[in-house]
Design goal:
single chain; four-stranded mixed β-sheet; 17 helices; globular; signal; heme binding; heme; Cytochrome P450 oxidase 75B1-like protein; oxidoreductase activity, acting on single donors with incorporation of molecular oxygen, incorporation of two atoms of oxygen
């Protein structure tokens, strides 16, 4: 009897070992490929100053879906359109949240905006407000006169500077900031460079704050990845985030106070005229699922102002940079403009559907130079199997849009700027074609993409329609650098400088 018990015990132990071995083998097979991590730092040693390019090179070795360790935390990187589709469509809800970051805590009022808010009732309500209230077609159409007025201001300034060196990004940023400020805040809350100080902030100062915001929201902050050394703030990023937050908070408080005073003065006759007015009305709505407090209003304001400003200006500057490297493309674009628009008026937003080559230029720019080279990181809400691999709850997921735009399996001669590749194609940037995702896709797609497309399209079209462009006398086409600066947005490292001259009748510039 005792020998039988021993035999049964041995058999049970053997079966247990075999089952455990099989489980471990299957588990090992379901792990994603990736570089072997170092203790504590993980694979951070492999990430250079341009993380999207570092990850692009690693993907060539480990594949379209790979796993790394950033410090102590697991990171998964998707570098192909098919893998992007897995996260942004097939398993969209599982990966609809955001990771915890210092940027979310310190620069967005503790995750009170839509960009960094975790998935849940607050985020769902915020996105609904954006889509149905702030970015509805009717609302955007009602603000077209603002976009027209500011575009005319841009044209007038460039005309006055004809024959002199122009730093294009400065003028584009000023125009987009003016448009967004008037739409969102009701007026320009900054003083123009040529005017005396009458507002709470100067244009240059406000642009510096936005540049800092984009940089700090895109950096790899070591404290995010190795939480037990977070308090040391080894890179100084948290200190900068706190300082920036104070500056932005003073500005937003001033804006809200002015709007509240105007509401109180008008009483029952008050009519909302801008997006801050709408947000303040919504904050008083007792039927909201989640109450919007003052930090929530500021978080939404920041999303709207920052998201609408730098992205449009950056994309148009990249487009002009690529066109000036290939002047024959400018000739094609202006031939289309002369044929469709003529030379007796400016390009309007309603004209853009009749300008397929201009649309192709913008798409090609967003393919090679997406503003968000890595989409804002996603976080897994639960364990999930993607493409046969196990991805665990809490994993951070990056979609490398920059890498997808250079995939030779999708794009012929991917490093070449060639707008013709989009002519006659149905590929768009609205999140349904995963080979082209400048605004993302799925639940976390940028809700303001329609406004961005309107501003980018009309700006680029009128820059080309209204002016001839040439490089400074001491500069050749080969001298145009295409180096980048990494952040939540990815602008040119060296601003594009050019000389303009009018190409339309002079009375149009008045």
């Amino acid at each position: 009897m005792e020998s039988l018990s021993c035999f049964l015990l041995a058999m049970a132990l053997l079966v247990a070992i075999l089952l455990l071995s099989k489980f471990l083998t299957n588990h090992q097979q379901s792990l994603l490929p990736g570089p072997k991590p170092w203790p504590i730092i993980g694979n951070l040693n492999l990430i250079g100053p341009l993380p999207h390019q570092s990850l692009h090179e690693l993907a060539k070795q480990y594949g379209e879906l790979m796993q790394l360790k950033f410090g102590l935390l697991t990171v998964v990187v998707a570098s192909s359109s098919e893998m992007a589709k897995q996260f942004l469509k097939t398993h969209d809800q599982v990966f609809a949240s955001r990771p915890v970051t210092a940027a979310g805590k310190y620069t967005t009022y503790n995750y009170c905006n839509v960009t960094w808010a975790p998935y849940g009732p607050y985020w769902r309500q915020g996105r609904k407000i954006y889509l149905t209230e702030l970015f509805s077609s009717k609302r955007l159409d009602s603000y077209e006169y603002i976009r027209v007025e500011e575009r005319r201001e841009l044209i007038s300034r460039l005309h006055a500077l004809s024959g002199t060196l122009v730093t294009l990004k400065d003028h584009l940023s000023r125009t987009t900031l003016s448009i967004v400020s008037r739409i969102v805040l009701g007026k320009k809350y900054f003083s123009e460079p040529e005017a005396r100080q009458t507002e709470v902030v100067k244009l240059e100062e406000f642009q510096e704050m936005l540049d800092e915001l984009f940089l700090l929201n895109g950096v790899l902050n070591i404290g995010d990845w190795i939480p037990w050394i977070d308090f040391l703030d080894l890179q100084g990023y948290v200190k900068r985030m706190k300082a920036l937050s104070k500056k932005l908070n003073r500005f937003y408080d001033h804006v809200i106070d002015e709007h509240q005073a105007r509401r109180q003065a008008a009483g029952k006759d008050f009519v909302a005229k801008d997006m801050v007015d709408l947000l303040l009305e919504l904050a008083d709505d007792p039927n909201l699922e989640v109450k919007i407090n003052s930090d929530g209003i500021k978080g939404f304001m920041q999303d709207l102002v920052a998201g609408g400003t730098d992205t449009s200006a950056t994309t148009v500057e990249w487009a002009m940079s690529e066109l000036m490297k290939q002047p024959h493309l400018i000739k094609k674009a202006t031939e289309e403009l002369d044929k469709v628009i003529g030379r007796d008026r400016w390009v309007e937003e309603r004209d853009f559907p009749q300008l397929p080559y201009l649309a192709a230029i913008l798409k090609e720019t967003m393919r090679l130079h997406p503003v968000a080279v890595l989409l804002a990181p996603h976080a897994a809400l639960e364990d999930c199997k993607v493409a046969g691999y196990d991805i665990y709850k809490g994993t951070t997921v990056f979609i490398n849009v920059w890498s997808i735009g250079r995939d030779p399996q999708i794009w012929e001669d991917p490093e070449k700027f060639m707008p013709e590749r989009f002519l006659g194609k149905v590929t768009d940037v609205k999140g349904q074609h995963f080979e082209l995702l400048p605004f993302g896709s799925g639940r976390r797609m940028c809700p303001g993409y329609t406004l961005a497309l309107k501003m980018m399209g009309s700006s680029l079209a009128n820059l080309l329609h209204g002016f001839n462009w040439k490089l400074p006398d001491n500069m050749e086409i080969e001298d145009i650098s295409m180096d980048e600066v990494y952040g939540l947005a990815t602008p040119r490292k060296f601003p594009l400088v050019a000389i303009t001259e009018p190409r339309l009748p002079l009375h149009l510039y008045q």
